[in-house]
Write a structure and sequence with these properties.
Blueprint lengths: L2 E6 L6 E4 L4 E4 L3 H6 L4 H4 L1 E6 L10 H15 L4 E7 L5 H11 L6 E4 L12 H12 L9 E5 L2 E4 L4 E2 L8 E2 L7 E4 L6 E4 L18 E5 L7 H8 L4 E6 L10 H9 L3 E6 L16 H6 L3 E2 L5 H14 L10
Parallel strand pairs: 1-4, 1-5, 5-6, 6-7, 13-14, 14-15, 15-16
Antiparallel strand pairs: 2-3, 7-8, 8-11, 9-10, 11-12
Helix pairs in contact: 3-4, 4-9, 6-7
The protein binds glutamic acid.
């Protein structure tokens, strides 16, 4: 028998209708959440640890970094073959990617959540917990980094993003697709893994820098938010650039000022797929950004670029942050 530890944190998966507030709230305890999953103790010997019971909108990178260390310590126990983390879906992809960058382990770590509460007619929570425990207990899932399992699909934490506000198939990997899926079978599911991620990264750090701002580029954006963030003490800044990796010329002075103030700036693309490029040379375009020491995030989404920059700033002097990009 294999031991899987399920860490619960709240979110829709732990929510039910509360008549007093006339809405959904996370109130289902970790033990009750797992006890409601038929067959889960057959899939593995399951231990439950409730880290919190909150909406994931309440989380901070600093808190998730602490959880990451707690989970890492439990994973060091040779009796534990893998872990599952249940999480609200709003920030699930950021926490999963933070764990992916920080935890240096071969053991499977699986994040899951739900798009429907247990008060709704068809809740995806129990099925997502069961399939996640199965993946966490499967030696085939070892060494793939942090995985995200929802709706019978297995995704890499680096690639997955929530693409729909309410659909059951909200979690997708738009650039590269899922790594595999959980296929139905007589009596038990079959875990089908089709590919392994090749571009896994690791950041060794004992701290995370919280002061990283986030600015989105839209038509006509100026330097107002960039300057405000620098004045407020930002140590890093993620700029979600236009699709090809360009910002507006009106942001250029602000970026220049930020760089001179020692702020590390990273750009990602606001397009759903692809990566920012340094091919265009006009002011604010990719080549100009590169020449101003701005880091390029490859195909990471903006929120994940921010997590990576926060960890990189925690790990290294600002001058050495470029090695992570
Ligand atoms: N906003 C809540 C959260 O992220 C509910 C969303 C969900 O879990 O699907 O925890």
């Amino acid at each position: 028998m294999t031991r899987v530890v399920v860490f619960t944190t709240g979110g829709t998966i732990a929510s039910r209708y509360d008549a007093d507030v006339d809405g959904f709230v996370p109130v289902v305890s970790g033990d009750d959440l797992v006890a409601a999953v038929p067959g889960v103790q057959v899939a593995a010997e399951v231990e439950v640890v409730e880290l919190a019971n909150v909406s994931s909108t309440f989380l901070t990178p600093t808190l998730v970094f602490e959880w990451c260390r707690t989970v890492g310590k439990r994973l060091a126990d040779p009796e534990v073959c893998g872990v599952v983390v249940t999480h609200g879906t709003d920030t699930l992809e950021e926490s999963a990617y933070l764990f992916d960058l920080v935890l240096d382990t071969h053991k499977p770590i699986v994040f899951t959540g739900a798009m429907r509460t247990s008060s709704e007619l068809i809740s995806d929570g129990p099925r997502n917990i069961l399939t996640s425990v199965r993946v966490a207990a499967d030696p085939e899932a070892a060494g793939l980094g942090v995985l995200v399992v929802l709706n019978e699909e297995i995704h890499a934490a680096r690639d997955v993003t929530k693409t729909h506000a309410e659909a059951l198939d909200a979690f997708q990997s738009p650039n590269l697709g899922p790594l595999g899926r959980i296929s139905r079978g007589w009596g038990e599911d079959h875990i089908r893994l089709y590919r392994a991620p090749r571009c896994r990264e690791h950041i060794t750090t004992d701290r995370i820098e919280p002061a990283v701002a986030y600015v989105k580029t839209v038509m006509g954006t100026d330097s107002l938010m960039i300057d405000a963030a620098v004045t407020a003490g930002a140590r890093g800044m993620v700029i979600e650039a236009f699709g090809g990796g360009e910002v507006t010329p009106f942001m250029a002075d602000g970026i220049d000022r930020a760089r001179r103030a020692g702020v590390e700036v990273a750009v990602c693309s606001r397009a759903l797929r692809g990566r920012p490029l340094d091919l265009y040379a006009e002011i604010g375009e990719g080549k100009w950004l590169r020449d101003h020491g701005v880091h390029f995030s490859d195909s990471l989404t903006g929120p994940k670029t921010r997590i990576k920059l926060m960890l990189a700033l925690g790990a290294a002097d600002p001058a050495d942050v470029g090695q992570y990009f």
